[in-house]
Amino acid sequence: MLFHIRCKDKPSQMNMRASTRAVHLGYVAKFGDSVLFAGPTYTDEGETVTGSVFIIDFEDRAAAEEFALGDPYRKVGLFESVEIEQIRKVIPADD
Q1: How far apart are CA 1 and CA 61, in angstroms?
Q2: Given a cut of 90, is residue 12 above it in pLDDT?
Q3: How much is the pLDDT for 9?
Q4: Phi first, then psi: what are they for 76, rounded to 5°?
């Protein structure tokens, strides 16, 4: 199942994000091909990080929630909110 995870950072937490980045990236990398897309979101000027987005392919919602709960960024309190939604790929169509 595909899931979209949107994590919004608490304001003014760039130092927390920077100090946890390496362990966060290591955590996400452990999930290999189950993480289809992962990256930060930015304000319009493109310099200030506002959060993180993931597109993941996991067995069920419980696995997606476990992934989100285990994120080191979440464990240190970086996120103001975390939203998880099941999604369906339409375009491009699979062959």
Answers
A1: 8
A2: no
A3: 97
A4: -90, 0
Q: 72: which residues sit within 8 A by CB, 6+ positions away?
A: 20, 23, 24, 27
Cβ-based neighbours of 2, under 8 Å, separated by 6 or more: 36, 55, 56, 57, 86, 87, 88, 89
Model pLDDT for residues 80-89, shown as the tens digit of each residue? 999 999 999 9
CATH class belonging to 2-87: alpha beta
Domain locations along the chain: 2-87
- The H or E element containing residue 19 is helix 14-29
What's the pTM value of the predicted model, to 2 decimals? Answer: 0.92
Tokens of 88: 């369906």
Tell me the C-alpha to C-alpha distance, in Å, between residue 81 and each of 10, 18, 87, 93.
Answer: 8, 19, 19, 32
Positive/negative CA dihedral, 17, 23, 25, 28? negative
What totals of helices (H) and strands (E) does the chain contain, helices first? 3, 4
End-to-end CA distance of the chain: 18
